[in-house]
Amino acid sequence: MSTASRSARRKVAVVGVALSDCGRVDEATPYALHAQAARRALADAGLGRDVVDGLASAGLGTLAPVEVAEYLGLRPRWVDSTSVGGSTWEVMAAHATEAIAAGRANAVLLVYGSTARADIKAGRRTSNLSFGARGPAQFEAPYGHTLIAKYAMAARRHMHEYGTTLEQLASVAVQARANAAANPDAMFRDPITVDEVLAGPMIADPFTKLHCCIRSDGGCAVLLAAEEYVADCASQPVWVLGAGEHVSHTTMSEWDDFTVSPAAVSGRLAFERAGVRPQDIDVAQIYDAFTYMTLVTLEDLGFCGKGEGGAFVEQGRLLRTGGLPTNTDGGGLSAQHPGMRGLFLLVEAARQLRGQAGEGQVRRPDGTLPELAVASGTGGWFCSSGTVVLGRG
């Protein structure tokens, strides 16, 4: 089918999703995890790699999409290497959807892989406390303002402004672990309590160890395709209904309000473009490098009012049997977090809508499968956000 014969705007679906081996993967390279995830996603879609004419990749190599494409044996005519931290993949999904809808590509593969845990264990890298001291960072680095300290400051501000408690933040970690218990791919599945979260070693006040994401190895892939390819796919399509992106700041002094994340904008745009409301969403996948990220993103997406996140999360609403099942695979706090985890959110959202989440499958009150999901990624220290609304049917 020629580009000229296509309609002006095509519908776009997620047609393939997959994880690579995850958790503790000591004998693979990041490139191998990319390839493994890509092969599995194509197999999930029931399509050959010859259909892939677009590639989105970030985080690996000097020329990320070019090197990954060569390793995968692809020669894409559309590429994206947008790198905005944890929100990278939701932003890339938005870009890819627009490209496919406009006829500039037919099938775009989003793929990621990292051996962050194995590299540290083998001494190939060390833990990084900051992103360097060049550019705007030069005004903060001399004061020892680490990455986690930025999140901790924001959490403390929310506690000061709205009375959010440590117990409420800890409940986010507890519920993530409870969801992970039903996920065989999760790195940590044993239950934890609020008291255990609070009693852990302090990392950056107010965050103890269990307030922070785990460090794992792993990768995943998502294949997006134009509507005319859906009939040839092996899996049920999950449609991209709307997406939004937004950047906020990089220097903390330029952040207008520590209690408002860029998801307040990306979420509003995504819901408006999808023609749905937050209350219509059945399942949410939210970037959770720290417990506060989940809480404030829920507020900014409109699931509760500003300052009401603490009360919202402490009632068990985030459990897969709760009012708003959130991070149903266990999230970055318990399942896996090899680095820029945003692509994992899209994989889990698609699996939930398809009914392929196994013991962790969410059901609506009437027993039916969820119809709508939102995936919202956050990058940097609330510097960027990408939000994607997906629908079944």
UniProtKB/TrEMBL annotation:
Coiled coil: none annotated. InterPro entries: Thiolase, Thiolase-like, Thiolase_C_2. Transmembrane segments: none annotated. Residues 244-392 form the Thiolase C-terminal domain. It comes from the Bacteria. This is Acetyl-CoA acetyltransferase. It comes from Streptomyces huasconensis. The lineage of its organism: Bacteria, Bacillati, Actinomycetota, Actinomycetes, Kitasatosporales.
